[in-house]
Design a protein that fits this description.
Elements lengths: L1 H9 L13 H10 L9 E6 L6 H14 L9 E6 L5 H8 L4 E5 L16 H6 L4 E4 L2 H7 L3 H13 L3 E6 L3 H5 L3 H12 L5 H4 L3 E4 L13 H19 L1 H6 L1 E5 L7 H5 L6 E4 L6 H8 L2
Parallel strand pairs: 1-2, 1-8, 2-3, 3-4, 4-5, 5-6, 6-7, 7-8
Helix pairs in contact: 3-4, 3-14, 7-9, 9-11
The protein binds phosphoenolpyruvate.
Amino acid sequence: MYRDILDAIKNGKLPTVDENSFAGPVAKEYFQMKGVKMSKRVSLIAGNWKMNKTVEESVELVNDLKQKLSDGSVASDREVLVCPPFTSLVVVKEIVKNSVIKLGAQNMYFEKSGAYTGEISALMLKNAGVEYVIIGHSERRQYFGETDESVNKKMKVAFENSIIPIVCVGETLQQREKNEAFSVIEKQVKVGVAGLSAEQSKKLVIAYEPVWAIGTGKTATPQQAEEVHAFIRKIYTEMYGKDAAESIRILYGGSVKPDNVSEIMRQPDIDGALVGGASLKADDFIKLVRY
Ligand code: PEP
């Protein structure tokens, strides 16, 4: 831990520090003075490949990532996740075995099995080696009719199958311009992530993705993002208590790139990134992982 922190500081990076793991208040004050983020949470950098990459292209990308990340340079305070299309899950799982890279899916259905042509169940994902699943991405809400209610059902079924859901929330540009961003997000959280057990409520991941920032090159300013992340944590505290709210990771998503990631990750309530475009090139994604 000390080594990670010292190395990060030497390399001009800002490590995330577990304040319980070492010298208490003095260290805390010192790191705060230096602008180092104090957090008990392990950051999660997740790549959402969306509807990109054939099996061959997936193999090439993940082999490249694995090879470049195999030098022990991923700090112990962060997790790396890739979410390929369904067709590539099994083959990618084989490659990421015994590496720092974890496997996620981009969607699932809430029914167990049966006549639901074109859908994938949580059990099928688990069986393919998936540890995380993205639920309620704004593209699913916009093009495929996902609602807070379906998000909620999917989230519960993911947990029942020991898959950690990454539930996406976020306002459209129109909603932000009409000053509705906070009420929209409040509803998405209150309905979308309701009904968890105490244990599940500490494991959930939420991703705040302003719709106007996804794939557009526009990013929320770190301050705009932090304001919403703190708001989500406040609502979550009301729903599940302080312990759970302090445990969960809240990721930011929306045109995260190598040149804006450090500033975003420095915010106290931002615990990682959900990345689309920049996760499709190994070199860019690696820069994000090493923010
Ligand atoms: C996303 O797919 O969730 C996303 C944030 O995409 P991008 O990084 O391309 O904006």
